[in-house]
């Protein structure tokens, strides 16, 4: 067993496992800069984990690797049991589509499409068609995030908080095993930020999807199961917020649309 594995033993139900992951960028031949210096990390189903750290510490780079948008320069990255080094680009795309839901600070909704159509996009991209089941699920998700009456509206007709809730419904539409959220509440007021956070939390509880959320908000980080702190490309601290990372199920908590400002 390698040193990295010894310090980061695989959990049986790990959705995500990183062992000694490094990332370097070429910033001009022959200069190469390493921005992640050997990251060991694992996340189990049901875990809801905050990733914090100063600007430039490597949080987005780490999320891009875990989200399979970039490849590590070294180390081992296993997603849902798949060692990603063994996968070609097509297989990585398929794994990403089936396993990972992304929520970004800027929601990246397509302005010409309605809320419902935006939520259907992952289904269309992954399966080539929006099936009636996918449409029913998209409508159900929008209702659950409190936007049942706004399905036919385009992003420009919705507030920032509402747009972010559409983005969350889109991210959850394929029932991802892993949710990656990069400052999803960064440009929202406190009440909208709390509502968006609670939606992710409820999905995590109800469906057991692991969630890794980048946040600069200590209030929200304190409500996660664990807080991982990244400084200069290294994990320097990890705080366990709960004795048991497998948070109890509270079925139906997503069924009540949140009270949020419009
Ligand atoms: N494509 C790239 N080429 C070269 N350097 C990069 C590239 N992407 C990121 N970096 C560098 O990697 C380091 C980490 O950047 P990253 O965006 O991951 O940090 P961050 O913690 O997400 O910062 P912030 O909180 O400001 O978003 C920075 O020094 C950045 O300049």
From TrEMBL:
Protein name per UniProt: Lipoprotein-releasing system ATP-binding protein
Protein source organism: Tibeticola sediminis
Ranges for domain ABC transporter: 16-257
Family recorded in the similarity comment: Belongs to the ABC transporter superfamily. Macrolide exporter (TC 3.A.1.122) family.
GO MF annotation terms: ATP binding; ATP hydrolysis activity; transmembrane transporter activity
GO cellular component assignments: membrane protein complex; plasma membrane
InterPro entries from the UniProt entry: AAA+_ATPase, ABC_transporter-like_ATP-bd, ABC_transporter-like_CS, ABC_transpr_LolD-like, MacB-like_ATP-bd, P-loop_NTPase
KW Transmembrane (keyword) present: yes
GO biological process: lipoprotein localization to outer membrane; protein localization to outer membrane; response to antibiotic
Keywords of this entry: Antibiotic resistance, ATP-binding, Cell membrane, Lipoprotein, Membrane, Nucleotide-binding, Transmembrane, Transmembrane helix, Transport
Composition skew (Low complexity), residue ranges: 247-262
Region (Disordered): 239-262
């Amino acid at each position: 067993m390698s040193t990295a594995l010894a310090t980061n033993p695989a959990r049986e139900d790990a959705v995500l496992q990183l062992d000694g992951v490094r990332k370097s960028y070429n910033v001009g031949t022959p200069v190469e800069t390493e921005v992640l210096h050997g990251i060991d990390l694992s996340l189990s189903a049901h875990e809801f984990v905050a990733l914090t750290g100063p600007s430039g510490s490597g949080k987005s780079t780490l999320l891009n690797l875990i989200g399979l948008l970039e490849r590590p320069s070294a180390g081992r990255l296993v997603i849902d049991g798949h060692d990603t080094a063994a996968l070609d680009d097509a297989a990585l795309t398929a794994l990403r589509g089936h396993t990972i839901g992304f929520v970004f600070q800027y929601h990246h909704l397509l302005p010409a499409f309605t809320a419902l159509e935006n939520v259907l996009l992952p289904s269309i991209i992954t399966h080539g068609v929006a099936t009636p089941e996918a449409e029913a699920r998209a409508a159900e998700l929008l209702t659950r995030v409190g936007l049942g009456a706004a399905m036919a509206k385009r992003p420009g007709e919705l507030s920032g908080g509402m747009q972010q809730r559409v983005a969350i419904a889109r991210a959850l539409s394929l029932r991802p095993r892993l949710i990656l959220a990069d400052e999803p509440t960064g440009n929202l007021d406190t009440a909208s930020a709390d509502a968006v956070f609670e939606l992710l939390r409820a999905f995590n509880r109800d469906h057991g999807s692991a969630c890794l959320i980048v946040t600069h908000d200590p209030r929200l980080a304190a409500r996660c199961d664990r807080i991982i702190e990244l400084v200069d490309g290294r994990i320097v601290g990890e705080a366990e917020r709960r004795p048991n990372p497998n948070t109890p199920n509270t079925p139906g908590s997503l069924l009540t649309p949140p009270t949020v400002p419009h």
